[in-house]
Amino acid sequence: MKKYSEMTKKELLSERESVLKEYERLKAQNYNLDMSRGKPSMDQLGLTESLLHILTNGADCKTEDGIDCRNYGQLFGLKEARELFSDLLEIPADNIILGGNSSLNMMYDTVARAMLYGVPGSDKPWCKLDHVKFLCPSPGYDRHFHICESLGIEMIPVDMTPTGPDMDAVERLASEDESIKGIWCVPKYSNPQGITYSDETVRRFAALKCKAKDFRIFWDNAYAVHDLDDNGDILLNIFALMHGTEYEDRLYYFFSTSKISFPGSGVALLALSDRNLEATKKIIEAQTIGPDKINQLRHVKYFTNAEGIIDHMRLHGMVLKPKFDAVLHTLKTELAPTGIAEWTEPKGGYFISLDVADGTAKETYRLASEAGVKMTKAGATFPYGKDPRDRNLRLAPSFPPLEELSLAIHVICVCAKLAYLNKTLL
Amino acid sequence: MKKYSEMTKKELLSERESVLKEYERLKAQNYNLDMSRGKPSMDQLGLTESLLHILTNGADCKTEDGIDCRNYGQLFGLKEARELFSDLLEIPADNIILGGNSSLNMMYDTVARAMLYGVPGSDKPWCKLDHVKFLCPSPGYDRHFHICESLGIEMIPVDMTPTGPDMDAVERLASEDESIKGIWCVPKYSNPQGITYSDETVRRFAALKCKAKDFRIFWDNAYAVHDLDDNGDILLNIFALMHGTEYEDRLYYFFSTSKISFPGSGVALLALSDRNLEATKKIIEAQTIGPDKINQLRHVKYFTNAEGIIDHMRLHGMVLKPKFDAVLHTLKTELAPTGIAEWTEPKGGYFISLDVADGTAKETYRLASEAGVKMTKAGATFPYGKDPRDRNLRLAPSFPPLEELSLAIHVICVCAKLAYLNKTLL
């Protein structure tokens, strides 16, 4: 088969006819397939079933130190739980604050605190400044962008490269503009491309020159242990790199078990320097008496140690890998020959990023919706929902069963082709 | 025995000698008794033991509507759980947002949102105003005051009366000063006095005239169902009174199961008007994907309905009543004859408020600390920790076992007497 770009008009018209026919056939099936969010599947949720009932009575709820997890207290979470994640992430337990069920919540709160109080190094609260800007490597995670939009923080897109954000641009912008106060990073298996930052990228982040004294890196290591198999990417430990340096206050490091145990009923984490921690403590003390310790203890008893989590994540990988493979297989079979699209082949995380032909992502999304396939909205992976080339789509293979998934990707491929052909021909 | 005020100097000196002797004897025992916070006791925590393991597998985690509580979603919490609390509090389920484990957290976040975004009726975010003030019925809950202090909100104390806050003062201040944006209320079994607002007080709140268009009542109904026995106080339903009136946006209503199931692992609630809910939703959407639904479902399965909660609270009352009785008995036996102190006799809640002689609360606290009895810090029940008459102490009878409790109260009585005698004589 010829690439679309090499086809004559007549060939394209004939191709369009057959693609349209297939599209109409699919549409008539009234599918209802959801590939919109990075949700674990039923199979994955079943992997931690016994977490539900691992604590059965009051005695089970006592910690090593005799703390009754059923009662008030422990502002930063259980010592055992902080140690478990310290072990896993190689971050000192003393620099870890455990929160509730959502690292997104901890990120929002961290930015909101900076707005209301400033951070160590700030002259004043960010809400008292005329302009606050964040660098946003794009495509990126829509919910990061949503936090900025909600809080009135201006977003400056920075291109993603195969080794992470374009660090030349990051360094130039951060060193020039004092109103640039932060950057969002998903450093391992980035959302949506599945890119892991190279060692050089991490090192450049750790030594970033910034005009703003209160610049912060929001390091959302959401997929730290989410490899598809034993051949996963390795990310340099930025906390260790920065800890003890003059730049250590610049890092807010986030993590959660949402995609390890249960999304919405896991444990979220914020790691930060001593000075950041002291400043944060003063504020959190006004906000809460402490997080859900019973649920933290469940996680400690279930996973025991870092190895327990790593072993467990192998099981997740075994469920996810065939799904990623299926998506990639269909893309390769159906889209590669046309030459109109590109995609990533991540070794972990929750997403595959699909770039269709310029100017056709929204239309592909619309066509897929009409055929009953729900995707993350086109444009959502860019600040303000504006994909400058209108080409990026985020595919989330985790949730649907394998058969549904292959079908959904087939629908998307047909839609991508039809969108291209319509644009070229009509 | 004579009242202290009727004693001659010689009699007082002799009384001081015997009180001091008893104090020294107590101090020598090296006690370690904690009456500082309103924490449920081990006996109370044991009442909901089976809540821990009421969900044991994936099928248990499905809701009536087929929602899998183990996965993401449901921004405002589970429908069933909202209905359970709707039933209990007689507030429409559609006006209820369920949060995480802490109503304090929801209160802080609600004030922080007002600071960052304003509320319906605001011209601008409160953080953009030169002055934001809250009325603070005093004595009151230290953590409410801490929220104001943390966020730079000026606190204006208002006296508490046996029927609730001094409403003449509340009405005058709220109607005069546009920078007064809110008031903290614990309307049933107020913290620390255990006062329940009278019907008239609630009605006056529901129809309050305010200068600020964006005034808000922070109605922390923490002890809504926390009666010591079947003879509990009855609080008028302010939500029902205000719902559908021109003032309905003025109410933020909070509640939690912290002292029903497990403190720190319960479910928190915010009830609010449609317009407040819409405005809040837009912001919460940026903050989280949703609260811990598994824990909400545990509560639904365990309590089933409002009656289940009410029945359960009878058991809590049966554990708490003897403790309240013991405190009151000791105060009556040891302090009443001296005439130097007054206290409340609440029918529920978690506290007894003790007013010792003017100018002796801090000293009583200090003496008790030195004798190994930890109380809530003197002054903590007032804004900025400043009790103008230095007389109020908050007693929290719930946590210590009965024998320890009686002993601790005896120590406090001895300290109150000694503080008075020292002040009068030295």
Topology:
The structure is a homodimer of 426-residue chains.
Chain A: H1 9-27, E1 33-35, H2 42-46, H3 79-89, E2 96-98, H4 103-117, E3 133-138, H5 142-150, E4 154-161, E5 164-165, H6 167-176, E6 180-185, H7 199-206, E7 216-220, H8 238-242, E8 251-256, E9 268-272, H9 274-287, H10 293-303, H11 306-335, E10 342-343, E11 352-355, H12 361-370, E12 373-375, E13 392-395, H13 402-425
Parallel strand pairs in A: 1-12, 3-4, 3-6, 6-7, 7-8
Antiparallel strand pairs in A: 2-9, 4-5, 8-9, 10-11, 11-13
Helix pairs in contact in A: 1-13, 3-11, 4-5, 11-13, 12-13
Q: What can you tell me about this protein's structure?
A:
The structure is a homodimer of 426-residue chains. Chain A has 426 residues and is an alpha/beta fold. The first copy, chain A, folds into two domains: 4-45 and 310-425, Aspartate Aminotransferase, domain 1 (Alpha-Beta Complex); 63-304, Type I PLP-dependent aspartate aminotransferase-like (Major domain) (Aspartate Aminotransferase, domain 2). Chain A has 13 helices and 13 strands. Chain A has an eight-stranded mixed sheet, with helices on both faces. In chain A, strands 10-11-13 form a three-stranded antiparallel sheet, covered by helices on one side. A two-stranded parallel sheet of chain A has the order 1-12. In chain A, helix 1 (9-27) packs antiparallel against helix 13 (402-425) and helix 12 (361-370) crosses helix 13. The two termini of chain A are 22 Å apart. The model of chain A has no long low-confidence stretch (mean pLDDT 97). Chains A and B meet through helix 2, helix 4, helix 5, helix 9 and helix 10 of A and helix 2, helix 4, helix 5, helix 9 and helix 10 of B.
